[in-house]
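Now for our specimen.

. . .
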Amino acid sequence: MRKSTPRRETPVAFILAILQAYENRSIDPVVALSQAGFRREDLREPSDRVAVEPFEALSTYAMRELDDEGLGWFSRRLRWGTYGMLLRASLPSPSLDIALRRWCRHHNLLTEDIRLEMRIHGSQAVVRIHEMVDLGDLREFCLVSLLRNLHGIACWLADSRIVLDKARFPFSRPSYADAYRRMFQGTIVFQAAEASITFDAAYLQLPVVREDNALRQILQNPIRLMARLYRQDRLLSRKIIELLSAKSDGLDPDAEAIAENLGVSIRSLQRHLREEGTSLQVLKSRVRLSKAADLLRRGDLPIKRIAYLTGYRDESSFSRAFRRWTGQSPAEFRCGALPLHQSLAFDATHSEHRD
């Protein structure tokens, strides 16, 4: 089987920015370039492209060698481990809103050269970078990296794809502007008043689901936070689950009704669910399980009645589906053998069919 050739998507301009950081510190970058597999003579044209893997290798090596995770952006170095410390401080947050506000506040304690700010305007959340000093030759690399880093951190904390509506940059459109569309979704605006990203504020209500063990793993290669792709958009799934949960007549709305309620086309709804690696049937199963488990815990309703309330025509059909969900019968579950969060793990692989 032939190996696929790595796609060259990262502008050489960003490598030249790292080399500028070396020059500003009067340090020879020859070892760093060699470690990443680059030759200086091949890095002349800013609009040329390189694969992301060697760029990540160069960035990581440079951060360690320069002992600066800011790669020369600021008047004071952000020593190796700084961003890990910031991430650890945001990890205990109950919601993404609190986590990102903590991140911005703590980052502002580290440097006075820029100030990060997150505000909500109507249904939109906006993260802005206020430039307090002239960032010089590394301005573009600094602003792009900060916004990509913050976006990647937000996605990682919530374990969700967070769709950006707009990204703004306060400089002229570069010759490699098409690369920006692979780094930032939505509308890209150049020559804006300041650097910022905008996204649906509803994402801020997502819970922070990461724990310390996951943090230790990601810090082994922190650059991947900016480049990692997330299939599942938990905001869309959450909206669908809320819509399904609100139904009290035992009848599930079909895809057309759900798409109309969310203000999207059926094709767009199906594409989003497919990209998340889930389906409407799986989400319906999750809602039925949640409702059934809640009713079973109350202990005062016959299982036949619960079957009807969760959309089944008879008790046996419900019992078969519930066993597929949890590996237990409804009666066994009622005895408290499995907590709900463990039961939910089954619905990703046991898609329930309506009997």
About this structure: The beta strands are 8-11, 49-51, 114-121, 124-131, 164-169, 187-190, 195-200. Residues 337-355 have pLDDT under 50 and may be disordered. Residues 139-158 form the longest helix (20 residues). The two ends are 43 Å apart (CA to CA).
